[in-house]
C-alpha cells in the first residue's frame, strides 16, 4: 500500500460524523435511517458519510428486502489503522511476528523441489508466508501489468487469479486500474 493510500484512509476517517458512524456499527449492522436517527442527522448527510467509508472499504452493505444494512469491516479498519505504526518499524501486534525459522519450515512443507507451491494452505498465517515467498522476485517501486503478475505467479502455481487476488487482499500489493505495485515491506502481514 502506498503512502498515499494511508493518507487517504486517515483523511477519510478524520471526521467526527464518520467516527461516530464507525462507533455505532461496532455494535452491529444498522440501516441508514437508524444511523441518521441515532446521530440526529438527515439521511442524505449519512449517505454521504457512508459513501466515503465504503470508498475505503471500512463499511460494507447488504440488502435485506427493501432495506440496506451497513456493516463495519473491522479487519480492514484495524489493518489500515495499524499500517501507520508499521511504517515506522513498530509492530504492536505480536501475533504477526513470524520467525525466519518458522517461515523456512512452512516453505519447506508447501513448496516442492522445483520451487512450486504444492497446495494453498487454509491457515492464514501459512498462506501469508507463502505469498511473501512468491512476491520475492518482484521489484519494489516497479509497476506491473496484470499479465506480468500472472506470468510471475505461474512460476509458482497455476491458479494465478486466486494468488493475484490474495496479493492485494493481504496488502502485499496494491492494484489500481489493472496496474499492480508492491506495498512497502513494513505493510506486509508477515
UniProtKB/TrEMBL annotation:
Protein name: Metalloregulator ArsR/SmtB family transcription factor
Species of provenance: Gracilibacillus pellucidus
Amino acid at each position: 500500500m502506498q503512502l498515499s493510500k494511508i493518507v487517504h484512509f486517515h483523511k477519510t476517517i478524520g471526521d467526527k460524523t464518520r467516527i461516530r458512524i464507525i462507533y455505532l456499527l461496532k455494535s452491529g449492522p444498522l440501516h441508514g435511517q437508524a444511523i441518521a436517527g441515532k446521530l440526529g442527522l438527515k439521511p442524505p448527510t449519512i449517505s454521504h458519510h457512508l459513501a466515503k467509508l465504503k470508498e475505503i472499504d471500512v463499511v460494507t452493505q447488504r440488502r435485506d428486502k427493501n432495506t440496506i444494512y451497513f456493516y463495519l469491516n473491522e479487519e480492514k479498519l484495524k489493518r489500515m489503522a495499524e499500517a501507520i505504526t508499521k511504517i515506522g518499524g513498530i509492530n504492536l501486534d505480536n501475533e504477526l511476528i513470524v520467525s525466519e525459522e518458522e517461515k523456512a519450515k512452512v516453505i519447506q512443507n508447501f513448496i516442492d523441489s522445483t520451487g512450486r507451491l504444492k497446495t494453498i494452505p487454509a491457515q492464514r498465517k501459512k498462506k501469508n508466508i507463502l505469498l511473501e515467498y512468491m512476491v520475492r522476485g518482484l521489484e519494489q517501486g516497479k509497476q506491473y501489468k496484470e499479465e506480468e503478475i500472472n506470468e510471475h505467479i505461474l512460476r509458482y502455481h497455476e491458479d494465478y487469479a486466486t494468488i493475484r487476488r490474495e496479493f492485494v487482499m493481504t496488502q502485499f500489493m496494491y492494484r489500481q486500474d489493472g496496474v499492480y505495485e508492491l506495498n512497502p515491506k513494513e505493510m506486509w502481514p508477515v
